[in-house]
Write a structure and sequence with these properties.
By secondary structure, the chain is of the alpha/beta class. It contains 11 helices and 15 strands.
């Protein structure tokens, strides 16, 4: 019962921000004395603080408490093909620092991991956060990542298959380090604070040089038996990888999208061919899940309606009922932010008992 009372009080306080004993008692249905006992214990443990009364308050002021979001921090890391992105956030999920580092597609696994470690440490140190206050790290990466946090298959990063990503990242700060596929983390970010906040069933497609996809059902990430759910990009018949290569064979993707937007007919045809190939794989996911929303993320999502327009048209021709198609809110920052969310989930469940 004590644990249940603590969970109820802490959950209510996190939602309220700053609250009085009376208000928390009303929300939780607990007695004022019980709430006060719980909060004093949480205060001793460092999870809450008592807020001083406002100046000029007459009489005996009500005791007010607030959750200490700075009692610990979490780190989200995106280990990609050509870059590493790190975000550090407090326990309310507010990002306090970001760090980026460049790598090459040909960078070997040990060097890529070393670069990720340096970026993570630099981000935490740059935020002025003690490394001992990092409670969880979450890492996202291309490929299939199993439930233990090991990369079970990577066809794009050299030497990446078999890397114990969770084990390696856990040693950076001496804390738990759940790992996941990059598209899965990006989908979590969009559902948490982005374009998919109000959707229940979502298909997310990370478009770029190496496309990937993720599925949310009932607001929860669907990883599948082996962690490979959504990996339709590995299906050669879908043509995603080939389409991405064809898009950039005469220049960079940004240049092609810009030219198409400016009215270049040749560039528009190239974008349309890419959108058609993307729609084939996307329609397979849409027909299987029948989602409320399809989110397009990753670097190419910055093209906006230049890409989304033809994609919507091709989806309408392939699907029985095409869902709404929207662009990502976060672009290439979504994987690291999704890592923050996954790390917070771990802290809330395993540390705070929520």
């Amino acid at each position: 019962m004590r644990k249940v009372n603590t969970q109820a009080t802490l959950s209510a306080l996190r939602r309220e921000g700053v609250s009085t004993l009376t208000r928390l008692g009303r929300i939780t249905g607990l007695s004022r004395q019980t709430v006060e006992t719980v909060l004093d214990e949480l205060k001793d443990r460092g999870w809450v603080r008592e807020v001083p009364p406002d100046e000029g308050v007459m009489g005996r002021p009500a005791r007010r408490f607030a959750f200490r979001a700075d009692a610990g921090y979490v780190v989200g890391v995106d280990v990609g093909h050509e870059r590493i992105v790190v975000s550090v956030a407090d326990l309310n999920g507010e990002v306090v620092a970001c760090e980026r580092a460049a790598v090459s597609e040909r960078t070997a696994a040990p060097e890529r991991l070393a670069a990720a470690r340096r970026a993570a440490l630099a981000c935490v140190d740059g935020a002025g956060v003690s490394r001992t206050r990092v409670l969880a790290v979450s890492v996202g990466t291309p490929g299939v990542v199993d439930r233990s946090g090991r990369v079970s298959l990577s066809i794009t990063l050299p030497g990446w298959t078999g890397v114990d990503l969770a084990g390696v990242a856990g040693r950076w700060f001496g804390c738990p380090a759940p790992a996941a596929n990059d598209a899965n983390l990006a989908a979590l970010a969009e559902h948490w604070r982005g374009s998919a906040q109000h959707a229940s069933d979502v298909v997310y497609i990370l478009v770029g040089r190496w496309p990937g996809a993720a599925i949310l059902i009932g607001g929860s990430l669907h990883r599948g038996r082996s962690g490979a759910a959504g990996e339709i990009g590995t299906l050669r018949q879908a043509g995603w990888a080939t389409a991405a290569i064809e898009l950039v064979k005469e220049g960079g993707a940004a240049e092609v999208f810009a030219a198409a937007e400016a009215g270049d007919a040749h560039a528009a045809r190239r974008v349309d061919r890419y959108a058609e190939k993307l729609a084939i794989g996307a329609s397979a996911l849409v027909l299987a899940v029948d989602p409320d929303l399809l989110v397009i993320g990753g670097g190419y999502s910055r093209a906006g309606d230049v890409l989304l327009g033809p994609l919507r048209r091709h989806l309408a021709a392939l699907c029985l009922s095409a869902p709404e198609v929207v662009a990502s809110t976060f672009g290439d920052e979504s994987v690291a932010l999704g890592g923050v969310r996954l790390a917070l989930d771990h802290v809330e469940r395993e540390v705070l008992g929520l």
